[in-house]
# Entry
Amino acid sequence: MRQVPAKVVVLGGGVGGTLVANLLAKALGREGRVTVVDPTGMHHYQPGYLYVALGQANGRWLVRDERTLLRREVDLAVERATKIEPDAGLVHLERGGKLEYDYLVLATGARLVPDLVPGLREGSYEFYSLEGAQRLREALRRFRGGRLLVGIAGVPYKCPPAPVEFVFMVEEYLRRRGIRERSHITLLSPLNRAFTIESASKVIQPIMEQRGIELVTFFNVEEVDPSAGTVSSLEGEKLEYDLLVLVPPHRGQDVIVDSGLGDPAGWLPTDRYTLQVEGHDRIFAIGDATNLPISKSGSTAHFEAPVVASRIASLVRGTAPNENYGGRVMCFLETGNRKATVLRFDYEHPPAPPQPNLIWHSAKWLFNRLYWETVPQGRLPEKMPMPIPTGRSES
Ligand SMILES: Cc1cc2nc3c(=O)[nH]c(=O)nc-3n(C[C@H](O)[C@H](O)[C@H](O)COP(=O)(O)OP(=O)(O)OC[C@H]3O[C@@H](n4cnc5c(N)ncnc54)[C@H](O)[C@@H]3O)c2cc1C
# Structure
């Protein structure tokens, strides 16, 4: 047993940071001291933004004090980390303080950068932040029908299913308000299909067709002209809109860039199995902050956290780390009308989503309700039963 507890610092108190801190404190006991650093000290359940935008939830349900989610023995510093010095094992904080670490976990998530696209901030709405979702809810309330365009203004972006869920759910919303007939809904996709994953597109596209939702492919947003009410693509297309909803471009956090740890977009070069930041044995990354070629999603962070906690605990004890991350992801995808499908995959197995049904809709609903009492504390089984599909479509 170590004489002096190992100092573990976790930057970010979102899904990944909170869970990894709780797992580490439990695994290390007196052998470690875990500190979470987060600038607001408030934890957001981001999947709920979708429901806020559609008037199905209010913001209060989505935000909790981070302290209430952490084990008692985890310290919380409500501070922004501004710089990391890997050689000295130091994190600098905005108000001038410093934290020493033996091990560092970077769980700083992604940053929305609307200003990368001219006109986007003034001319479009989004549901990727709480304030954005609240503004969109008001815009939708004022909407009396017309051309509603929904698109993605840069890859990668978190929760790839979210824009598709939004078009299905907004279609239902407009029907309920009796203005569906007066509205034309279009999904703008940067790819040749509705969704990044081909098997999911095969499930989604026929439903879009049935519901009269237009798909425009190869539309990489270049510019929005708010006064003309148009959005143009790099491919040279220009479309008119009455209401435009765009997922803003994402980048890594400033602290990653300013510390020279990220790639040009601020994502952390991360080993896909050990989750170590490349070239830094004592630094790990999880969640949206990594450069891994998998979905930026809460479930990714959820499956990565136990691997990082276990590897750090082994290193603290001087034993060989033996847990690897296999690329596991699980995302629900709402298709409206009380139906949803699910995407479950890993590095080796692509998803084979079932036809949308009430069961997966209910599972997502239940998950939304159970989140606060389960995920951040690690109370969902770490090895959550999640049979990886064999390639055949489940139904
Ligand atoms: C509309 C929407 C719907 C979604 N739906 C789903 C879904 O259904 N399923 C799913 O799995 N995922 C979903 N997601 C994605 C999911 O919310 C994110 O992928 C997840 O939150 C990532 O976790 P994270 O811990 O990496 O980052 P985050 O949860 O974003 O946390 C990052 C934390 O780091 C902090 N931070 C930032 N900079 C610093 C700094 N300099 N110093 C210290 N701390 C810092 C931030 O304040 C924040 O608290 C959705 C997201 C959105 C926007």
Q: What stands out?
A: The two ends are 51 Å apart (CA to CA).
